[in-house]
UniProtKB/TrEMBL annotation:
Residues 70-81 have a biased composition (Polar residues). It comes from Pongo abelii. Residues 82-96 have a biased composition (Basic and acidic residues). This is CCDC92 isoform 4. Residues 24-79 form the CCDC92/74 N-terminal domain.
Amino acid sequence: MTSPHFSSYDEGPLDVSMAATNLENQLHSAQKNLLFLQREHASTLKGLHSEIRRLQQHCTDLTYELTVKSSEQTGDGTSRSSELKKRCEELEAQLK
């Protein structure tokens, strides 16, 4: 008499074949899922790298713009300072 706890050992060839087919299907499904995830991962990384390049370019553009504006302000400030100094000298000369 076979114990119900050991019924899995009493599987016939058909049951073993079905179990093997089931495992093969699970393996195939897992491989397809893995391939899908790898493709999605690659696509996400590509998008992120593209976004990083775009942000780096934007940062470079803003840095350049800030440098140019800074130079213009310094130039204007220097020019204005020179103008005021020259004007003071002219006024001092008139007082003499």
